[in-house]
Amino acid sequence: MHILQLITKFYRSGAESLVYDISQILVEKGHRVTILALNENENSLEEDNIKKDLDSKGIKTICFDSQITHIQKIKKLIHEIKDNRIDLIHAHAYHPNKYGRVASFFSGTPTVVTYHSATNDWSNFRARTLEKILSLSIFKQKRVSVSKIPLNHYRKQISENKEVFIIPNGVFVDKYKQEKSLEEIRKSLGLTKSDKMLLNVGRVVEAKNQKVLIKALGKLKEKGYKDIHLFIAGLKQNEDLFKELLDVSQKSNLSSNVHFLGSRNDVGNLLQACDVFMFPSLNEAHPIALIEAAFCGKVILASSIEANVNSFSPESVVFLKENDANHIAESLEDILNDFDHYSNYGSQAKLEARDKYNIYTTVEKYEDLYSRLL
Fold it and tell me: How far apart are alpha carbons 120 and 98 in whole angstroms?
């Protein structure tokens, strides 16, 4: 089977990372996989590195010019489907889901669409109308939601009756094996043995709520905790917000304590090295970053949003009762002052992640849908 995985860009984000991992397993199972990005990544170096890595795993990559029109993209997509003899399209997230089904209609290629978004993609009339049209039975498709959150949006805005499968995101059990010694990793980050490392993995966007972490760190520094460092690893997607976060850090006298790493390909090393994984997101659909931290057995302090509390039990993750800087600072202080006790949460999180979020199970469920369409 030749599967076309359709994504927005070649960058490191939740949905895209899932696609890269799924594609690797599908190739291992004997399928052919092509990943096509509808737009170029503004960071060409990151795009090139991702494509080289995928190529080394036997995965073909295609990227469209961001400047071409919608009609041109559809025409090119149909051409690529026919020219590469694609058997099935698997589209991920809002824009790929639209393009994938339109191309599917004209090429006769069945489609699996996966809804990844925590927010309502169909809040306006135009988007809602288009999705209702694309959900008609004339399109040969199967619909998937990564959790109940996108599904509930679909049920309220599009249809209460159409079939939508829930397939949770998965992670490689051994993906984040320690590649270097902790001493090497921490030294490369400028940390001493006595320093405490907090880690947040996520794009710099409002939804990830990194500002409250910086403010909480300021509260701790006022109490005398001077050797705590916050590392934020993720694409600086919102430049205005990034500048604001820098400003907050400077005004709080935290310039030497807050570190913006940008998009990284060594998240495994960062996770192994950190003391506490911080995840104060305001909304998520099914949080891959949280799952990754759990697989590494990290002590996790996370917001009590629906996606997080539905993903892990309160025995595995320390959930915030309030999402403000004072409460986060107090919760983090409790953890740091009784780390041996809270390390039990990390051990439990690792067990729960392995039981619920093995990516091979995710792939098996998708393969079953593929076979139903062909």
Answer: 15
* Residue linked to tokens 């039981």: 355
Q: Compute, in degrees rounded to 10, the torsion defined by CA atoms 267, 273, 277, 278.
A: -80
Q: Residue 257 corresponds to which amino acid?
A: N
Q: Is 119:93 a contact under the CB 8 Å cutoff?
A: no
Identity at 210, one-letter amino acid code: Q
CB atoms within 10 A of CB 256: 10
φ, ψ at 137 (rounded to 5°): -70, -10
Cα–Cα distance measured from residue 358 to residue 251, given in angstroms and rounded to the nearest whole number? 43
Identity at 81, one-letter amino acid code: I
What does DSSP say about strands 228-233 and 258-262: parallel, antiparallel, or unpaired? parallel
pLDDT value at residue 178: 63
- pLDDT on residue 118: 93
Ranges of CATH 3.40.50.2000 domains, the chain = 2-170+358-373, 182-356
Task: Please give the backbone phi and psi of residue 252, each rounded to the nearest 5 degrees, phi first.
Answer: -95, 10
Q: Give the model confidence (pLDDT) of 290-306 as tens digits.
A: 999 999 999 999 999 99
Tokens 């940008």 belong to residue:
262
Is 0.85 topped by the overall pTM?
Answer: yes
* Rounded Cα–Cα distance for residues 321 and 274 (Å): 23
Mean pLDDT over 221-244 rounds to: 93
Q: Which two tokens stand for residue 321?
A: 């009762």
Q: Of 64, 11, 29, which Cα lies nearest the Cα of 262? A: 11
Q: Where are the alpha helices (DSSP H) in the chain?
A: 14-28, 44-56, 70-83, 94-107, 125-134, 148-157, 182-188, 210-222, 239-251, 267-273, 288-295, 306-311, 325-337, 339-356, 359-373
Q: Are 334 and 370 contacting, i.e. CB atoms less than 8 angstroms apart?
A: no
Residue of 59, 65, 47 lying closest to 11 (CA atoms)? 47
Residues 373 and 142: beta-carbon distance below 8 Å:
yes
Q: How far is CA 165 from CA 74, 97, 144, 247, in A?
A: 27, 15, 5, 44
Residues in contact with 52: Cβ distance below 8 Å, sequence separation at least 6, in sequence order:
none
CATH 3.40.50.620 fits 2-170+358-373, yes or no: no
Query: Residue 33: helix, strand or coil by DSSP?
Result: strand
The CATH architecture of the domain made up of 182-356 is 3-Layer(aba) Sandwich (3.40)
Sheet containing strand 276-279, edge to edge, reads 258-262, 228-233, 196-201, 276-279, 299-303, 318-320
